[in-house]
# Entry
Amino acid sequence: GEWSAREVVLHLTAVEEEVWHARLDALASETFPHWPWVEPGLWSGPGADTFAGALAAFAARRAATVARLDALDETGWARTGRHATFGILDVAALVRIAADHDEEHLGQIASG
# Structure
């Protein structure tokens, strides 16, 4: 039942788009967004059929996430929303959760 390394990267790519981009966008445009638990599957798109393509797709989306974070000022970093499981989160907390999620799935690759 474990994912292959390519599938893990495709999942991380989907999470980048569907979770982190969506939440950062919501923080920028809504007063106090509420987020449900979301568990994306595997991203599909150009390049998804190879490991190199999956890595390129993830790298592009992670770069977009970093660009969003780089553009935040102090007020942007202080914005908060409510997650159904984690409660009230600011941007730094979202980043910590993203890093924990990455680490969990990268552990699958290392142990596989």
